[in-house]
Design goal:
single chain, about 150 residues, mainly alpha, about 80% helix, globular
């Protein structure tokens, strides 16, 4: 019986940690995307802070459930985390149906993916990988900015 209690506590802790990471990465992705769009002269149409928080909460819950299921039942299938990311992007697209186009959603997904990958790289001590990913993403953002300004 104590083993079951430990499993339940561990599963709940894993779920809560996944939800917290997903919520923070979604929130940070929205903030950084808004700042980036401001720098290149585009406008990211955002809802009120309360609505954005609810959207981030729902999307992060979906991502946390996906993380928990994958980490619990298929721990070697880390690439399967792409599916909860797509569902979260779909939730954001629905929440901003008339305001965001597909490029906004793709940029949002890219920001969140880079935030999570860099965070995990740093957490596991892969500092060079984190620096290279950030440098590559900065180069990508520079190219997008140059293209957006030429239009």
């Amino acid at each position: 019986m104590p083993e079951l209690a430990f499993f339940i506590k561990f599963a709940a802790l894993k779920f809560a940690a996944g939800w917290a990471v997903a919520f923070l990465s979604l929130g940070l992705a929205v903030i950084l995307l808004d700042i980036y769009y401001g720098l290149i002269g585009n406008d990211l149409e955002l809802s009120t802070a309360g609505k954005e928080t609810v959207t981030a909460g729902v999307a992060s819950l979906v991502e946390a459930v996906g993380f928990w299921l994958i980490a619990t039942y298929a721990p070697s299938a880390g690439r399967a985390m792409v599916f909860p990311l797509f569902v979260a992007a779909l939730i954001y697209k629905i929440a901003h149906f008339e305001d965001w186009n597909r490029n906004d959603v793709l940029m949002f997904m890219a920001f969140q993916a880079v935030i999570v990958i860099v965070g995990m790289s740093l957490a596991h001590g892969h500092f060079l990988a984190a620096i290279l990913i950030l440098a590559g993403f900065a180069l990508f953002l520079g190219l997008v900015a140059a293209f957006a300004r030429s239009l």
